[in-house]
Write a sequence for this structure.
């Protein structure tokens, strides 16, 4: 459930309290973001820093989250996939990176999408070691939120009033994995990944689950076990997904849930890139799948 508002003066707010306030604020915003999606399916007029054209819905969600998170005592920096530069709130404290509406291209076909939250105890761009919490909201048939903090993953349902309730504690990837979701196109996959993908797809226990929104696809892996991959493509040698906004937080959540993450060679948490909007290949899932992937890429 949402916490009591802490009345401690801002200058003495602990990181733990700030993380709780960030999660509370994201949960409170979620129903309003969801309610604001209809009527915002049109493209905005300018591209984002990754060269993608956002929807009005992306801009709407980013504006709301920037206002609410940027106003929190203990949040010193706010960055978003939709903004070129980091916003310094002047308050000092933790840094928050937001993908306001991951998979917003799913709005028109009314499929899932999500909000990704990465919290770092360092100025941006941060490293994987700086991460202190990560979360995602999933706008599906219901609105749920998965939070990794203090060494554990918890899944919540978010009610219409923004209050949230635990539905799964100590979430861990199932030992009998059954789903895989691979982004990009088979002809664009580099050869190593194409061979690996063929091996996974030939496993009769594995089913394809790919919805085009990373958070929806990762939540399938968090629920049923398996692997999600957005690999290096012939025309995307660095991959498509962003390190600070997608790779680190999803890697942190899956590893906290007992799985593994990789960029093909190392844990996503060990990837180091100077650019706030740098990209990386993303592979997350059960340990055996990621170990096999790295072995395939080594040979
Ligand atoms: P494709 C959504 O745009 C996103 O950033 C991720 O959520 C998703 O995994 C990927 O891109 C989908 O990419 O090439 O399948 O449309």
């Amino acid at each position: 459930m949402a916490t009591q508002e802490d009345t401690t003066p801002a200058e003495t707010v602990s990181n733990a309290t700030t993380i709780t306030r960030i999660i509370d604020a994201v949960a409170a915003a979620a129903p309003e973001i969801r309610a604001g999606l209809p009527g915002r399916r049109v493209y905005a007029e300018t591209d984002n820093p990754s060269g993608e054209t956002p929807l009005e819905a992306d801009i709407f969600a980013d504006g709301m989250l920037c206002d609410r998170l940027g106003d929190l005592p203990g949040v010193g920096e706010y960055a978003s996939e939709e903004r070129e530069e980091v916003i310094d709130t002047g308050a000092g404290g933790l840094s928050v990176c937001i993908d306001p509406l991951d998979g917003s291209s799913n709005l028109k076909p009314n499929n899932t999408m999500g909000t990704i939250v990465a919290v770092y105890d360092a100025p941006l761009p941060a490293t994987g070691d700086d991460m202190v919490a990560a979360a995602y909201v999933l706008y599906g048939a219901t609105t749920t939120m998965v939070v990794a903090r203090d060494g554990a993953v918890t899944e919540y349902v978010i009610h219409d009033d923004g209050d949230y309730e635990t539905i799964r504690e100590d979430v861990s990837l199932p030992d009998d994995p059954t789903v895989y979701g691979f982004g990009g196109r088979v002809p664009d996959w580099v050869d190593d990944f194409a061979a690996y993908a063929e091996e996974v797809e030939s496993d009769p226990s594995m089913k394809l689950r790919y919805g085009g929104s990373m958070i929806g696809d990762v939540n399938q892996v968090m629920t049923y076990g398996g692997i999600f991959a957005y690999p290096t493509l012939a025309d995307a040698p660095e991959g498509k997904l962003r390190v600070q906004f997608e790779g680190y937080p999803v890697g942190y959540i899956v590893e906290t849930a007992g799985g593994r993450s990789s960029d093909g060679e190392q844990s996503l948490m060990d990837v180091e890139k100077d650019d706030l909007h740098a990209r990386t290949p993303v592979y997350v899932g059960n340990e055996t799948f990621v170990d096999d992937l790295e072995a395939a890429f080594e040979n």
The helical segments are 15-36, 56-70, 191-201, 214-224, 243-256, 287-298. The first strand starts at residue 75 and ends at 80. The pocket of 6-O-phosphono-alpha-D-fructofuranose is lined by residues 102-103, 105, 183-184, 212-214, 230, 240-241 (CB under 6 Å). The mean pLDDT is 94.
